[in-house]
Specification:
Blueprint: E1 3-5, E2 8-10, H1 11-25, H2 34-45, E3 50-54, E4 57-61, E5 69-73, E6 78-83, E7 86-89, H3 94-97, H4 105-109, E8 121-125, E9 132-144, E10 149-155, E11 165-168, E12 173-175, E13 178-181, H5 186-197, E14 203-207, H6 215-225, E15 230-240, H7 244-247, E16 252-254, E17 257-258, E18 261-262, H8 265-278, E19 282-284, H9 285-293, H10 306-313, E20 318-327, E21 335-338, H11 339-350
Parallel strand pairs: 5-14, 5-15, 15-20, 16-19
Antiparallel strand pairs: 1-2, 3-4, 4-14, 6-7, 6-11, 7-10, 8-9, 8-11, 9-10, 12-13, 13-21, 17-18
Length: about 350
């Protein structure tokens, strides 16, 4: 059945949601993405796509692999058991903090999300296999000033050993024209699988550890391994907005730049042109942040994206642009996007599927 809401019908969204729903249930806590890589590999190989797995990146390629490159990180936020009945926010344990450059949006948001997790159900699993170990419930979370990290008190998982990942118990919710779950960034992984199912013949990169600032290294390593450069790399992700009204001001979120510098104007303008051709509303996140900062006491960081770090490391030899879904409740298990935005993103991506 097509997904319908508020008088609009989104038949293509129904097919996409059939991909997204089971993927959301699969754990992929940052730093422990192996089991999710295997799920993606199975999904892609079942439709005849060539897949190669390298350290930190799964690469899917069609018959014209150099025509266009999409990238999407697959890691999601969760907890890591770090001691007897002790749990920390996995992306910000001491071993990972050095990768974040001090002005990342994720680090900034740590202080805004610390009270959102009480009552959240979680599940533990073996690090490599993803085998289920048990469930618990977060009873309290707070920022430890000494460790500069979110510390969680969890009821029901006191038997776990240090190093065990704990993911949020996640299910897709659909209501009032909105979908919600921990969408960042499984929604983009599902988009790429949907795109390959529809006949996309370019390259898709699924990367690990974006939430610790490491995914760009895996992307860059793959391009270097292949002796490739490109100006046509599009990085898919979600993008946080302060209110539902702000998010709904556009179906598609674009960027001219991040804190590292400018993205490819040609690639960015190509997306703008396609949005305008299809009647899709779009907005630029860097412009939104600049406007918001005019009235903020403490400026919000522009952020350092996966793409920006690749661009900076290659002096622009590898470049492209970002393509994002506007959301609210960022970095929680109830991150929310509109079906209109999902439909718009699908329509835009399908324009890159060439007729056979």
């Amino acid at each position: 059945m097509p997904v319908a809401t508020a008088g609009y019908t989104y038949p293509e969204v129904s097919q996409f949601l059939d991909i997204l729903k089971p993927l959301i249930r699969e754990p992929s806590v940052v730093g422990n993405e192996d089991s999710f890589f295997r799920v993606l590999r199975r999904e892609l190989e079942e439709i005849g796509i060539e897949v190669q797995h390298y350290h930190g990146v799964l690469v899917a390629q069609g018959n014209r692999p150099h025509s266009l490159f999409f990238s999407a990180h697959i890691d999601r936020h969760g907890l890591l058991c770090t001691g007897p009945n002790e749990f920390q926010y996995a992306a910000f344990i001491a071993g990972n903090q050095g990768e974040n450059m001090g002005d990342s949006a994720s680090e900034h948001l740590l202080h805004t999300i610390e009270d959102r997790f009480q009552g959240q159900r979680v599940q533990a699993h073996f690090p490599y296999t993803g085998t289920y170990l048990g469930q618990g419930e977060i009873t309290h979370s707070y920022i430890c000033p000494e460790r500069n990290n979110l510390i969680f008190e969890v009821d029901g998982l006191d038997f776990l050993q240090p190093g065990t990942p704990v993911s949020f118990l996640d299910r897709l919710q659909i209501e009032d024209g909105l979908i919600s779950a921990q969408l960042d960034n499984v929604v983009s992984a599902a988009m790429l699988i949907y795109l390959f199912r529809q006949g996309f013949q370019g390259t898709g990169l699924f990367t690990a550890q974006e939430e610790t600032g490491r995914s760009w290294r895996y992307t860059l390593s793959w391009f270097q391994r292949q002796c490739l450069t490109t100006q046509r790399l599009i990085v898919l992700d979600t993008s946080p907005y302060a209110t539902r009204e702000d998010a709904d001001a556009q179906q598609i979120t674009l960027r001219h730049k991040d804190a590292n510098g400018p993205f490819s104007p040609t690639m960015t303008q190509e997306l703008v042109k396609r949005c305008e051709e299809f009647g899709l509303s779009y907005g630029f996140k860097d412009e939104y942040i600049a406007i918001q900062n005019e009235t903020r006491e403490k400026p919000y960081p522009l952020g350092r994206t996966e793409l920006g770090r690749v661009v900076s490391a290659t002096d622009g030899a590898i470049n492209g642009t970002t393509l994002q879904i506007p959301t609210t409740e960022y970095h929680t298990a109830t991150e929310t996007a509109s079906l209109s935005a999902i439909s718009g993103m699908i329509q835009l991506l399908l324009s890159y599927v060439e007729p056979v």
